Amino acid sequence: MAENSYFRWPPCLMLLIISVLVSLPTSHSQESPTYLGFVSNATEFPAEDYYDYIIVGGGTAGCPLAATLSEKFRVLVLERGGIPYGKPNLMTQDGFLTTLIEADAHESPAQLFTSEDGVPNARGRVLGGSSAINAGFYSRADQDFYTRSGINWDLRVVNQSYDWVEKAIVFRPELKNWQSAVRDGLLEAGIDPYNGFSLDHVRGTKIGGSTFDSSGRRHSAADLLSYANPSNIKVVVHASVERVLLASSSAYPDAKKSAIGVVFRDQTGQYHHAMVRDRGEVLLCAGALGSPQLLLLSGIGPRPYLASWGIPVAHHSPYVGQFLYDNPRNGISIVPPVPLDHSLIQVVGITSSGTYLEAASNSVPFASPAWPIFIHSPGSAIYLNVATLMEKIVGPLSSGSLRLASTDVRANPIVRFNYFSNPGDLERCVNGTRKIADVLKTRAMKDFRFHHLFGAREFRYVGPALPIDQSNDAQMREFCRRTVSTIWHYHGGCLVGKVVDHNLKVMGIGGLRVVDGSMFTVSPGTNPQATLLMLGRFFGLKLIRERMR
Ligand SMILES: Cc1cc2nc3c(=O)[nH]c(=O)nc-3n(C[C@H](O)[C@H](O)[C@H](O)COP(=O)(O)OP(=O)(O)OC[C@H]3O[C@@H](n4cnc5c(N)ncnc54)[C@H](O)[C@@H]3O)c2cc1C
Ligand SMILES: *[C@@H]1O[C@H](CO)[C@@H](O)[C@H](O)[C@H]1NC(C)=O
Ligand SMILES: *[C@@H]1O[C@H](CO)[C@@H](O)[C@H](O)[C@H]1NC(C)=O
Ligand SMILES: *[C@@H]1O[C@H](CO)[C@@H](O)[C@H](O)[C@H]1NC(C)=O
Which residues form the Glucose-methanol-choline oxidoreductase N-terminal domain (predicted)? Predict the structure, then answer.
């Protein structure tokens, strides 16, 4: 189905990329932050221990949540992956593609999965979660999100939480040639006003924030652990949580069952128990795939489905794993006649009807100078320059679901997103793809076309070009379906109002909440990481206030 992606290369090319890139030296320093004193390997964990809060998943929402709660309470973070520091590809902007390409090695920081729609995708498996493998674009949620998300936000605390995150890990990117040209092209194509550098989701063309600093070094949710109170927090890596332990508890008399702890395994296969004390809670921050998977494995889900796996039913919750969404991405990639600077997403165009355009440029090592393209050659590697312009749709309206592939938590669940099953999504894609065509026609794109005899200038495409007749709805729809790819903003599976209440408590169970992208009905601002980082801080402050009352 999906074929137009500069992130997806033929296997032989991938091998070349890997073999060339792994030998490239890095100039960035890889020093670890000082908090690492409270991070330990699961093998060193006692067989049983007690905490006020157990956070499952040291990801984008989990790390800021843990750091905040540790100000007042004893906190445990259990993360299935390792630490990101010291891994050059993971920790640099230039290593973005390599991290995704090298994924699927045993315990690699990116775990690949392909949805039943046929679209390859990825999820974080490392401290920092998907914020430690992502493209770094940072933009606060759109204003609508706060009214539609089903959560009682306090907008003053929301802003304070964003500030707390941004002070530590958000930077203003410097535009190089492709991003500058795209900015000019978006404006020429009528996506205005120009908003300059802004962290807000606003109509027009803007430069967003980045979690890569000016030297290209990655910052992620893992960095936010340096805010933690070191004497109140334990972060355990290579700890794969298998299920939540449920029992009746006097701390939650209204619920038949409450979360009293979790069971996890270390790398040697040894089991450990972590338990909550008093009015403590288990907080699932395992992401849009991990949290619904863990609820199912713990016996919280649709009764007949759990029964079909022989999982004892603790609580019938019909919508666990349902309403799983992914924002479709479509676009074009070209090889220009000019040198290209490496860039991930920095400039975006946002229209009032919800079209969202963004761009990236990558220098991809290539073995042979056979391609009639610009070549530069640091060391012995020869590089192929690819510039991409893409659109993704807000929402989306189409949804799918998740089911277990195995009762082994380490196996990816089986997911299906049903891209474009809602005709509204297809119409948005057609509109967005037409906007790409408008941008390609602008003067700003002139230098990225090849000159031909008689003055003609043409783009040289990698993968499919847009249909020639862009007014033809049927052809444009076909292009959307045929070239659909992901922007990795998948969300849902534990929706507010369906699985969790507006305080993110799992309905019907005491002492258990889900605090991550699995409760979203829409991807906020369509770039979720800012909102998830804020959510961790916001909910940490909220839980502290609740319990200090
Ligand atoms: C390749 C890629 C590029 C992206 N680019 C951008 C971008 O540029 N801008 C943007 O805003 N967003 C981007 N995103 C999306 C964004 O990063 C994610 O939506 C967000 O990080 C998800 O946060 P989360 O807290 O819900 O889950 P995650 O950050 O994925 O955290 C879940 C954590 O739980 C752990 N876990 C799961 N199961 C278990 C278990 N059983 N036991 C223990 N630990 C477990 C995982 O290892 C992980 O660390 C991108 C995502 C990807 C994958
Ligand atoms: C964790 O401990 C196990 C067992 O001692 C060991 O095999 C593994 O390499 C350790 N992992 C790390 C990242 O230190
Ligand atoms: C929060 O910040 C946004 C800018 O990101 C601003 O527009 C809004 O007025 C602020 N809200 C409050 C309550 O301070
Ligand atoms: C698509 O664009 C058309 C024409 O500009 C507009 O009327 C329509 O509302 C747009 N559709 C969506 C779903 O945004």
Answer: 287-301
